[in-house]
Amino acid sequence: MAKAPVTDLVVVLPGIMGSTLVRDGRELWNSRIAVMGRHLLRGMRDLERLVLPPGIGDDDPQDGVEAVALLPGLHLLPGVSAIDGYAGLLGFLERRFDFSGGNLLPFPYDWRLSVRLNARRLGSAVSAALGDWRERSGNPGARTVLIAHSMGGLIAAHYLDVLGGRADARTLITMGTPFRGSLNALAVLNAGVLPGLGGFAEPVTRLARSLPSLHQLLPDWPCVVGADGARTGLDRVELPGADPQLTADAHRLRAELANAAGALDAGYRTHVFGGFRQPTGQSATPGPAGGPFRTSRSLDGVDRDGDGTVPRFSCFPAHHADDSEVRYVAQRHGSLQNHPALWHQVEAILTAQAPRNFLDGGPELSLDLPDAVFDGRCPVHVTADGGRPALGVTAEDVETGARTGPRGLRHRGDGRYGTTLELPGPGTFRIAVADPADPAAHPVVGFVQSFPAA
Prior knowledge:
Residues 279-306 are annotated as: Disordered. By secondary structure, the chain is an alpha/beta fold.
């Protein structure tokens, strides 16, 4: 297949944790460290070097840390998200499009820092790259196309709508961007990372709680449910574990984005992709006696689902009237950017062809997994929308590539399936559920960390 020409500059932004971080030639964050798994304790201690000083706000810590590349493989922060890397997305773009002129710009960024700071850095990088591309291509009308996963979409939106980048933009494509936040950020800032590990997880929790970026992912809908059932926003309650100044600033950032986008004729087109049919946190209740908040997968008694990290109602900009123009795929947050149907839609957008291969008639699957297990036993719960497929589940050790399964899932009625996987040892495992007999059914993928029993 001949590669399609691209006349614009295409910029790819990863989500939080999605860039390799280097200081003095040493990688402090990469796919190997980010998975941790068998090297958990050593990896956690290394992360101490990335902790930011209090009160950093939108400033540059000037600690010598640089973002040098998009992470190709799995990277995760337990409880926040598990992202299956960007090699698949970048590889697809390079296979289908002609970027021989140098007009594909992966934009790694220091994901610890604030959205505002990274948006300014994006503006500088795009300005230089677009000027060079216009000169090399002889096309002074070339513009930018931004493809952004997760938090990368917030950075892109701030650059476009607040900093004026829309003047040179043609298209913004977002995938699972938490425009209204994610309850996962609330849970991690409040209870810490993997509280079941106790003191062993403290280095990662200190890192998480120092990050302006993670605070800027806090939910801005009224998500805290009181004893009387009434809902309140995080701007009116105390969230133990979170930095009060960073929390307040996160609310100001969301207001900036909403006001800027709602008050202008953007001048560029937005295409929003979201995941749905996955169990997703939507509300929280303060714990007894000041204990950790308890999260719920419903809001006002209704489960609106999402991608496992970003609720369905959070994946589109706040100024949109509803989500009727969102393209949904039944996939979890960390694998949205690797979903073949989504790739085909991106191809259709970039080539201005009619959408194809999006809704292919295959069954849509919902996968419910724990973030971590401590005895090797991993419960797997799946719901299939339509038909009664013969589903199987496979566990792959992301460090060694060793695979277990496929193991059949038992049908329990009403489209519900389940089993318990016996993971072979400690590590990080990619859990995939699919119907081997139906090639039209896209697998749904999640990640579980297995730790030795205490």
